[in-house]
Amino acid sequence: MKVNCHIDPNIKEEHLDLFVREMNPQISNLLKSFTSTEPVLWCYDADQIIPIKFSDIFELTVAKTGTKISTKDHAYLS
Would the pLDDT of 1 be above 80? Predict the structure, then answer.
């Protein structure tokens, strides 16, 4: 997948253009995370980057090797 990110402080409104061959659960989840008003922290889980809701985080551990984010069911890296 090719990703382009254009940062322009002069734009009036932020927007996202997404071109996909078909809708799938991963794309659906991505769209939900971009349109959600609840703050999230983007974390690594194996080879995926996923949004973790602030309200689901109960522990943050910061070390030289990275930040570990723990939820009730899983631990992620950021």
Answer: no
